[in-house]
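Hi F.,

I've been meaning to write this up properly since the lab meeting, where we talked about keeping a consistent format for the predictions we share between groups. The idea is simple: the sequence comes first, exactly as it goes in, then the structure tokens exactly as they come out, then a line or two of notes. No screenshots and no reformatting. I'm using this chain as the first example so we have something concrete to point to.
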Amino acid sequence: MAELQEQAIRQHCKALRMPTIGTQFSRLADAAIREGQSHLGYLEALLAAEMEERESRSIARLLHEAKLPRMKTLDGFEFDRSGVSAAQLRTLAEGDYVTKAEPILLVGEAGTGKTHLATGLCVAACRQRRRVRFTTATALINELAEAAHASQLSRALGRWERLDLICIDELGYVPLAETACELMFQVIADRAEKAAVIVTTNLPFSEWSQVIPNPRLCKALIDRLTDQAHIIPTGADSYRFRRTSAQRKAAKS
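Output, unedited:
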């Protein structure tokens, strides 16, 4: 009789799309008996298990859709080897800047941890159930150019505009054609004061004209990105180089 009841419960859970309850109800029932839980206590435990698993799956889906280059968190960043404030980054990771649609700009030389920090902020946003997308400046422009060629630019821009947070990595590493700059400007302008953006760049703002040839467009882009922005210098000394050197010294000793 009990076996038939368990089969029926599993079938009901499958039909109701509650797989976690379907796999855990028996184990939680045994625990409820041992601990002397009430019927309501057992029901609460069942529903809590289902909710926890759904949240975990939702976050995993958001992390997958974010297209992060690697799974890196702020906890894994060695702030003691960097001049970046751990307190500032952890405060930002709480997500208030996303709610307020404030940009974040990470400015520093190659190897100073910009991508790691940006990725950590994106991971934190995904864990807060926000829709995030990570891309490089080159990849973003290529995607938009292909969409424009296929007469799908408005649709592509709409997809970027609906995201809670976007991260544009490596702005400044490659000079951009004017048309490419215009495409990227559309994405950033559409989000101004409406949705958050993170940008990493190896160039100080005074040198952006080296990669954005149109002076007016360059000025307008900087204006959009710096308005109400959190501008975080990551320094000039390579974080990766110093870390590798320290590891080599430790291995020799």
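Notes:
The longest strand covers residues 165-171.
The chain is about 60% helix and 10% strand.

If this format works for you, I'll send the rest the same way.

G.
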